[in-house]
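Weekly puzzle thread! Below is a chain. First person to post its structure in token form gets bragging rights.
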Amino acid sequence: IGSVAPLTGPQAHLGKDNDNGARLAVEEMNAKGLMIGGAKIRFELLSEDDQADPKTGTIVAQKLVDAKVAGVIGHLNSGTTIPASKIYNDAGIVQISPSATNPKYTEQGYKAAFRVMANDVQQGKVLGEYAVKVGARKIAVIDDRTAYGQGLADEFEKAAKAAGATIVGREYTNDKSTDFRAILTSIKGKKPDLVFYGGMDAQAGPMVAQLKSLGVKANFLAGDGAQSREFLKLAGPAADGVVASSPGLPLEKMPGGKAFADRFSAKYGQIQIYAPYAYDAAVTLIEAMQRANSTDPAKYLPEVVKTSRQGVSGPIAFDEKGDLK
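Winning reply:
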């Protein structure tokens, strides 16, 4: 089973979190001594590093196809998941992403593409409505130009405007940058009462700290990419009062959250964000193979489609697009 995430670079802590979530699932399923096709079976996780880069994502996807993996858990980012999904689809390999939230991923009509968390149409809408509900009227929006960050920011902007807010500025950065003073100075002059950021923790942390150091009084709101321990570390005291959304239940509210956290942290340390989802994706894949009595994607795909199980993160079942019901 292939597992793909950024294992190097600014998002490596998130990538390793995903990889370890899938690894724990594979280890636990192997410990059960499963039989498939009349023989005892042992699963192996083949980990690849896509560096959160779309081009690298397609290269490692082809590598996994050539290695004839039985299925793929990944990728972490929407920007890598979407281009890689074509390669897996063409090869007839089932792909379940634990954390890619851009709606385009499942709108391509690929029969073997699934995700185990909410998408950004759902998340962005809730964020936009929430911003106005807590009193934001003048909002500045920043995104990192990735499929995830820009997609989430677009949905947020749409919902915030519909709820009556004014967007006083829209700025862009990238997913490698750590100095945002130029765009934040421009935003400061527009006197927003809220700044929304679409992107990951490696940028959100320093951004909040720089916002405070420039004396911007606005509240800061972000999506799931900023809801990590790493964000708290990078932002320091500036993290106080920051709000971020989660496209699923918080760990302590997940049906299997506490037990999973205990097992995971005993082996791999503290959970960042998506490890429970990567675990659920891997178990979902393996259980579909069990029910089909085959590791051939063509044979077990119908079982993935019919999935109805209780995961660590909540109930897992897919709609006709491959989105979580």
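Puzzle host: Confirmed. Bonus trivia for everyone else. The longest helix spans residues 12-31.
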